[in-house]
Amino acid sequence: MAAKDLYWQKVEGKWRMQMCALGQGMVDWPDVLGQVAAAAFTGPISLHIEYKPSDVREAIARDFTALKKLAETADSKEQS
To answer: Beta strands of the chain (E only): which ranges?
Structure first.
């Protein structure tokens, strides 16, 4: 599974995908990760940093932390 986030932005009259930090875009992560947990997915999750952060290491750490929190929330909802 590839984890990345995006939003749509109109540029010169055309809609374009804009990649962004995990949790700052349009992806409904609680729903996505809830479905992943419900499916008992045990495969790898690859975190993609496809936007242009000023500090790549900081962006990786921030997005990884966000993904872990979202996954823990989805997992706890699945168990209840």
So the answer is: 2-3, 5-11, 14-20, 46-47
Residue among 58, 49, 46, 47 nearest 19 (CA): 49
Q: Is a pLDDT exceeding 70 seen at residue 56?
A: yes
Residue 42 has pLDDT above 80, yes or no: yes
Question: One-letter amino acid identity for 39?
Answer: A
CA atoms lying within 13 Å on the CB side of residue 28: 4
What's 58's DSSP letter? H
Model pLDDT, residue 77: 63
Which letter does DSSP use for residue 36 in this model?
H
- Angstrom CA distances, 52 to 7, 44, 57, 59, 69, stand at 14, 24, 12, 9, 23
Whether the per-residue pLDDT at 7 is higher than 90: the answer is yes
